[in-house]
Design a protein that fits this description.
Layout: H1 3-30, H2 33-50, H3 71-91, H4 95-105, H5 110-127, H6 140-167, H7 169-199, H8 216-222, E1 229-232, E2 241-244, H9 245-262, H10 267-278, H11 282-305, H12 313-333, H13 339-367, H14 375-406, H15 408-412
Helix pairs in contact: 1-7, 1-10, 1-12, 2-12, 3-4, 3-12, 3-14, 4-5, 4-13, 5-11, 5-12, 6-7, 6-9, 6-11, 7-13, 8-10, 9-10, 10-11, 12-14, 13-14
Length: 427
């Protein structure tokens, strides 16, 4: 199997597990009246002020990191959360990847979009505390080593973003766009190739989907005997398994850096890292992943962005509201949509995000005086990227919501319990 294919499977597994966490957390909020009331209590003042077109508040034109506050931008945040939720719920992956690019496409500065996305993830994680039952599976020693590393990683990632922004806001925008363009481009085109093969009947099954078994890489990693050694999974293997705490901490550093730079909470990397690289059982990984998301997203959001004015709280609340609705509608719609369609929409939505971020780079590079191109040309490229992105997202949202409405009678008669999956077996 090629390295590219292995990386693709790693990212698919990562995206899928983050979507599973997102779904479970959202459902724990929606099924708890107290949490709904708390959310409404936070949203009502925002909604009241929003529809009065007030501008001088946190995240307004007077904020340290400027963003124009208006009714439209708040409604856009709800729409972004809704679409991300629909993608997460229906496709079972990828929804979290479009939030920061979508905010940037809507006119929010890149560093503010990252900070706001992190705060949105942190708020959802805190409210979804019903998931704490799974924390009983956490290996305390593994968690401590990993969280020490991720804490350090958030400071490194935050330092990179803030330093670039302080040096030149345009450079910060270009950097964040480039990171997303590379990630979404790689993931999107591999997903598209996977989809095209599946249409021809080729075997595209996930060779490692959720397996708690040891990979060749994890065996090699566990054979590195650097003190201190951490024992874990005693309930899975007699005597447990051992791994260097230094390696676990270094893995945490990587997750922390990615979380702080991209604003995704780091959860999309933790699961496959623990299973593929560290050789930790899925049972232990799930609990540790939940704990890591709360800790890493919270630390990065507060210590690296909020205290510097890089969190747009009103947008975070709007995205939370939209995602709670979207994720439930999307998850229910999987019951009436063929798996092959879900696979295709996954590839298209990710590629649309790639096109949008890649299309902004020529303009940024011209403004940074790195290349010489006509302003009209680069503006046209950026506009095309925006049209493609919003067109694909809008079409997907309308299609899913339409499927949901048409099939409401059928969905009412089925079990309410549904979990998102990346690919359903085609009927």
């Amino acid at each position: 199997m090629s390295i590219g294919r292995r990386v693709f499977e790693f990212l698919i597994m990562a995206s899928r597990e983050h979507a599973r966490w997102d779904y479970e957390t959202s459902m724990s909020i929606l099924k708890n009246r107290k949490k709904i009331l708390i959310l409404l209590a936070m949203l009502l003042p925002i909604l009241a002020v929003t529809f009065l077109e007030a501008g001088d508040m946190i995240g307004s034109k007077t904020a340290y990191a400027p963003a124009f506050y208006s009714t439209n931008i708040f409604l856009v945040s709800i729409a972004i959360g809704l679409c991300a939720g629909l993608i997460t719920g229906c496709i079972g992956a990828g929804g979290g990847f479009i939030i920061t690019p979508a905010l940037m496409a809507a006119g929010v500065k890149g560093i503010l979009a990252v900070g706001t996305d992190l705060f949105h993830i942190f708020a959802k994680a805190i409210m979804g505390t019903a998931v704490h039952k799974k924390l009983g599976n956490v290996s305390v020693k593994l968690a401590i080593a990993f969280l020490v590393g991720s804490a350090g990683g958030t400071f490194i990632g935050g330092f990179i973003n803030k330093s670039l922004y302080d040096y030149d806001p345009l450079l910060s925008e270009a950097f964040i766009s480039l990171v997303y363009a590379v990630l979404l481009g790689f993931l999107g085109f591999y997903a598209l190739a996977d989809f095209l093969k599946s249409r021809k009947g080729a075997d595209t099954g996930d060779a490692h989907g959720g397996s708690s078994g040891m990979t060749d890489l994890s065996v090699k990693v566990q054979n590195v005997k650097i003190a201190p050694l951490i024992t874990f999974d005693e309930d899975v293997v007699p005597g447990g398994r051992k791994i260097s705490g230094v390696i676990v901490a270094l893995g945490g550093v990587v997750v922390g850096i990615m979380a702080a730079i991209m604003g995704v909470g780091g959860g999309f990397i933790t699961f496959p890292m623990f299973v593929y690289v560290f050789g930790v059982s899925s049972m232990t990984t799930v609990g540790t992943d939940i704990l890591q998301i709360i800790f890493t997203a919270g630390l990065a959001a507060v210590s690296q962005y909020a205290i510097y004015g890089y969190v747009f709280y009103t947008l975070a609340m709007g995205m939370l509201l939209g995602s709670l609705i979207g994720i439930q509608v999307g998850a229910l719609t999987t019951k009436v949509v063929k798996g092959i369609h879900i696979r295709g929409f996954y590839a298209i939505s990710i590629i649309a995000g790639f096109i949008n971020r890649a299309a902004t780079l020529p303009k940024k590079m011209v403004e940074l005086e790195m290349i010489n191109m006509s302003k009209d040309v680069v503006q046209t490229i950026e506009s095309v990227g925006n049209v493609v992105f919003w067109g694909v997202v809008a079409f997907f949202a309308i299609w899913v919501i339409g499927k949901f409405i048409v099939n409401i009678p059928k969905l009412r008669g089925e079990d309410e319990s549904v979990a998102p999956v990346l690919v359903k077996e085609e009927a």
